[in-house]
Design brief:
The chain has about 180 residues and is an alpha+beta fold. It is built from 6 helices and 8 strands, in the order H-H-H-E-E-H-H-E-E-E-E-E-H-E. A 6-stranded antiparallel β-sheet has the order 3-8-4-5-6-7. A two-stranded antiparallel sheet has the order 1-2.
Length: about 180
């Protein structure tokens, strides 16, 4: 009799543990397209870790090489705020203003350079008017950001390049993210 109770308790305990172990609570492991991630890493010339925002990196890589076009908003030609607008719409489902200074003032809260996180916006002035953002990009990681260069189209650059250090204005974290 004593052994029967012990066996029943053991079977119940195993059943409960099995239920807990094998229930997913509605979550699944994310699915990764490793080929697409490898191509993205090559196009961006950077390592992409499992904890990184893969959607941000994949979408950003699709824009690499798109020519610069003032007022442009498509893969046929894009300006800096058009690039940030499109990537944010696709990755974060957020609609940003269509001007770099408006994005800075109306869509973001200020973030210091040392506190930048993946997806933050980075703002620059033109060297003349230091109060107005005339250029914007999206911070990726490791001091690197994607932006639409007037001379080279969409590229990834480093914040520590002398030009970008000189015209740095501020970082911005988009409100509501």
């Amino acid at each position: 009799m004593h052994q029967t109770r012990y066996t029943i308790r053991l079977i119940c305990l195993i059943g409960i543990l099995g239920t807990l172990l094998f229930s997913s609570c509605g979550t699944r492991a994310p699915r990764y397209d490793y080929r697409e991630l490898a191509q993205t890493a090559i196009r961006l010339d950077m390592d992409i870790a499992m904890e990184d925002n893969h959607r941000l990196y994949i979408e950003s890589s699709r824009w690499i090489g798109v020519p610069y076009r003032t007022g442009g908003n498509t893969m046929r030609g894009v300006d800096c705020s058009g690039l940030t607008y499109n990537i944010y719409k696709k990755v974060y489902h957020k609609h940003l203003k269509r001007n770099s200074d408006d994005q800075r003032k109306e869509n973001c809260r200020k973030v210091s350079k040392g506190k930048l996180q993946e997806g933050d916006l980075v703002f620059f002035h033109n060297g003349k008017n230091k109060r107005t953002a005339t250029h914007v990009g999206i911070y990726l990681k490791d001091n690197r950001f994607i932006h639409a260069s007037t001379s080279r189209g969409v590229i990834v650059s480093r914040l520590d390049e002398p030009y970008y250090r000189r015209v740095w204005m501020q970082g911005g974290r988009v409100k509501g993210l």
